[in-house]
Amino acid sequence: MKLYSFFRSSAAYRVRIALNLKGLTYETSAIHLTKDGGQQHQAAYRVVNPQMRVPAMALPDGEILLQSLAIIEYLDEVQPEPHFLPSDPLRRARVRAVAQIIACDIHPLNNTGPLNYLRRQLKADDSAVNAWYAHWVTAGFDAVEALIDPAPYAFGAQVGLADICLVPQVFNARRFKVPLERYPKIVAADAALAKLPAFDKARPENQPDAE
Ligand SMILES: N[C@@H](CCC(=O)N[C@@H](CS)C(=O)NCC(=O)O)C(=O)O
Question: What is the C-alpha to C-alpha distance for residues 75 and 71, in angstroms, rounded to an integer?
Answer without folding.
Answer: 6
